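Assemble and predict.
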Amino acid sequence: MSEEKEPLFSGKNIKLLTEPLNDSNPITVQVLGICSALAITVKVKPAFVMAVSVVFVMAVSNVVISLLRKTVPPRIRIIVQLVVIAAMVILVDQFLKAFLFDISKQLSVFVGLIITNCIIMGRLEAFALSNKPWPAFLDGLGNAAGYGVILIIVAFFREFLGSGTIWGYQVIPEGFYNFGYENNGFMILPPMALIVVGIIIWVQRAKNKKLVESN
Amino acid sequence: MKSLRRYLDKIKPHFEKGGKFEKLHSTFDAFETFMFTPDAVTSKGSHIRDSVDMKRTMAIVVFALVPSVLFGMWNIGFHHFKATGQEGTLLEMFWLGFLRILPIIVVSYGVGLGIEFAFAQYRGHEVNEGFLVSGMLIPLVLPVDVPLWMVALATAFAVIIGKEVFGGTGMNILNPALTARAFLFFAYPSYMSGNEVWTHGMIKGEGIADTFSGATPLAEAAAGNVDNLPEVSEMFFGTILGSIGETSTLAILIGAVILLFTGVGSARIMISTFIGGLVMGLLLNAFAVNPFMEVPAWQHLLLGGFAFGAVFMATDPVSASQTPKGKIIYGFLIGFLAILIRVVNPAYPEGVMLAILLMNVFAPLIDHYVIENNIKKRLKRAKVKA
């Protein structure tokens, strides 16, 4: 019981929370979860809801798996993980359908597909199965937040340039359109999300030399 | 000329190491080698050195594009006068087109070279020459009334995302000029396709006669109005609607002769592209179920941007296949897919752009297998002997 004395926000734990935001970001460094990043980042609002959903699913399932880690036989751990994630996803899905029906419609199948989001499975396998609930919770929060931040940044640029709005509000003044400005239709198409993610990776690597591989 | 040389020699020390403008070395270097053939000599290894360097090669391509540019200028005026029902002399038509095209060319070169210079300064290498051609190709594949800021944006996108992120000229996997066009095509479809964009003044509707449709022959054919297709001679000489430089097959062929004569463009790619298009056209003719599929195969080669793409885009030495056999496969598939996309997918009447970009991506794979195949063959031969 020596770890009892470790403060809740020790340096190591804080690192669990902050590292996925930059140095080991699930999207830009580990390049996981790209599929949903392409699909639901057309507008900021759904991207935000998606990010929050993933934060919830990930944090809770990390804790649950961490609690179960000593009782789950290794041979069936994947099934157990899937069941836990699926239960959380169904909760989120039902919640969205009940209270945020419009957004639930926009996210369509991608809420259900959180189950297959490789970030979640990856963290359960790599972290929650071998760590205590509290660090697992922080790890889940951190990774989901790292995912969510990128999602929202990408959605910001795509909505701003593609629709001229942010969070559904018109931000590019009408005068611009009269002057000949046009919304960039390419931004609404999935390939552009990939390019925006690429540019984010570029900027991140330019700033964070640690990430640049030496060969 | 002499005084220019003297002036360059006078200011040169400032740009060398330790000089006042050391940081601007690559800019100076770009201008110097653009004006004069560099006097560098090979110091080791093979001692054969051709004075035809990248800048000269690129200049030849630009030279080959001149007929298309000049014809495009006249064609814009011709169609504008035709649409408004006015009478105009040859010179008036040409002048109108000149005034329309010049700003597009200036913007394309200005933005593209600006970015190239900035990257060269920042990375400390020489300014890449590749944009000399791209800057001329971009205006030629755009409709006449495209807003200038769109040209600027597309050029910036093509140079940065299409080229510089991969490491500059010689490293890009996609043809920059087509990247620019594809960007505009998907980003601003209302300015890149439809019936209004091909004639100057038609978007704003300034005095355009009601009877003037503005549809390109390709659009007419795609709509099934094959009877509205212009005469073959019109399609060949290029007095039809389309992007600025793509309409006249004759002007493009003159360019092709220049490219082939100087050895700058690959004859393998050009010819196999045409053959690929022809084969697909014949296949479609054989299974024709709608009027568009019945258009004679050889007429497809005159329509739209097929010839322009085959001569100037597919032969881009950087993004094309490098092996002789690979070039033939690469070219054939471009032609083959271009006609397939054009006829079968009604959403993209201009399949040439997409076919070339697709094959650009596949070019390294084609090369890989050609080389592997060759290695295998030679190994086999070696074994039989032993």
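The two ends of chain A are 44 Å apart (CA to CA).
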